[in-house]
Amino acid sequence: QVQLVESGGGLVQAGGSLRLSCAASGVTMCISGMGWYRQAPGKERELVAHITSGGTTNYADSVKGRFTISRDNAKNTLYLQMNSLQREDTAVYYCNYWFGRDYWGQGTQVTVSS
Predict the structure, then answer these.
(1) For residue 36, with 0-12 CB atoms within 10 Å meaning exposed, 13-18 middle and 19 or more buried, which class applies?
(2) Strands 34-39, 10-13: parallel, antiparallel or unpaired by DSSP?
(3) E strand spans, the chain
(4) What is the reported pLDDT for 3?
(5) Which pLDDT does position 41 carry in this prediction?
(6) Which of 7, 42, 67, 73 is most buried (CB neighbours < 10 A)?
(7) Hey, how many other C-beta atoms are within 10 angstroms of the C-beta on 44?
(8) d(CA 85, CA 90)
(9) Cross-strand partners of 42
(10) Are β-strands 108-113 and 10-13 bridged in parallel, bridged antiparallel, or unpaired?
(11) For residues 26 and 91, is the Cβ–Cβ distance under 8 A?
């Protein structure tokens, strides 16, 4: 059974940093691509960053140069390092795994204040 549990969200001032974690169980991370999505109020869920099983990463244009996705296969954990946070980054952030279907965590709230 796949379970994804996000943590690390919170309230931060603009320009600050946060590191999100996603603890995965029931997943073989070394052969899986995984990603981070976010959903702001009144907006659709959007891809923030993705990492393939081989370690290739891609990012939304809005976060390039500020966010870094990484993984620790030994710990079955996915990370998102977020620097230079902006108010526009305020959203619920979700960890995603796809294997025949999409699996989602419960989300973690990130709020950036000016």
Answers:
(1) buried
(2) unpaired
(3) 3-7, 10-13, 18-25, 34-39, 46-51, 57-59, 67-72, 77-82, 91-98, 102-104, 108-113
(4) 96
(5) 93
(6) 67
(7) 7
(8) 9
(9) none
(10) parallel
(11) no
